[in-house]
Amino acid sequence: MKTPTLQLLNANDTPLEFGMEKLGEDGEGNQLWLHRSTGKVANRFTDGDGNVFWTDEIEGWNYGAEDAIDA
To answer: Is pTM beyond 0.70 here?
Structure first.
């Protein structure tokens, strides 16, 4: 299974194909996703227009930069 990067996730938005698992939602458009094989996480944000953006902004989920999926 291929290891996801933020670039790949933003291009395809197919986290399940990378073996990722959704850990939570904040009700404001943010979701926390975990890549099970590496233990790395990413934030999936959906804006008011339905556009999806994958980011390494995970501090609000109590993770540090070292826990983020690579760009």
So the answer is: yes
What is d(CA 31, CA 24) in angstroms, rounded to the nearest whole number? Answer: 6
Nearest one of 31, 40, 25, 39 to 13, comparing CA atoms? 31
What span, in angstroms and rounded, lies between the C-alpha atoms of 53 and 55? 6
Tokens of 28: 């404001």
Q: What ranges make up the beta strands (E) of the chain?
A: 20-25, 30-35, 40-46, 52-55
Sheet holding 30-35, edge to edge: 20-25, 30-35, 40-46, 52-55
pLDDT in tens, 16-61: 999 999 999 999 999 999 999 999 999 999 999 999 999 999 999 9
What is the C-alpha end-to-end distance of the chain, expressed in Å? 18
